[in-house]
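Handout, page 2. Input:
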Amino acid sequence: MFGPSLWPALAYYQSEGGIRMRDVAAGDADLRTDPQRDVRRLSIFAIGLLAAYAVALVLLWRMGSGRNLGLLMIAPTIGALLAARIGPGVIQWGRPKWWLLAGLAPAVAALIAYTAGSVVGLDTLHLGTLGRALEYAPLAIVFSMTGAGAVAEEIGWRGFLWPLLRGRYSFALSSLIVTVVWWLFHVPAILLGWYGSIAGLPAFTVALVGMVLFVGVITDRSKSVWPSIVAHATWNALVLTGFAVAGATEHAFSGSAAIVGEFGWLAAIASLALGLAAAWWHLSKPASSEKCAAAPLTATAS
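Output:
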């Protein structure tokens, strides 16, 4: 179809076109990870988060006793999707690495704390129920992951916010910021009496600090949001419930709300110990990349 004299011109056109397409792709990736746009991304994330949160609060207020707090939990994801789209930015999806440690570590830490508490009389261990709870634990964790809580929160916190902060700040400062944001995110529902108790807020705060540290470590190391989802789901399915049997009201550990559960001191101590140990290991044995930056090849732009 083309004469010999046209081949050099066609080859040159294809070459130049390829360069232009690569330049456009590279420019788009650079725009999504340009640190100079971080303030813009954070602003969009905050606006989307707060707007979705405010709408959810109004809807929940009108629902009365039948309210579903899952409406609040999707607010971080909405903020992250908006920031990724308009910022533009990235959500660090990554690959499902470190998921076994993410699920085992919180469960084992809480199991040790709850068992030690039963030995000294702080709570009560129901051994038969514990066996069934551990048997059904994987199912309970998977079921928790399918709900709005773990997935919806972590896409915003560890999929978007944490990698962005770690691209600019130290592990300690990033952890402090996320702790404050995450704490403020939960407090309105607690103060309104929809979730937990005001009396348990100190223990909840300690537990939250531990979770921020532990989940921050596995997110840094895996460069993925999936381990944080597994850890969060494990906390909700097992630690929060006192190792309840999936789909039942039986609990392997029972006791006062001040001792057992998400607002109890045994879980708080276990979480803080796990978080501090993980952070010490992480900081004393740094990975090849000191900072956790969101990489376009492993992050999905929305």
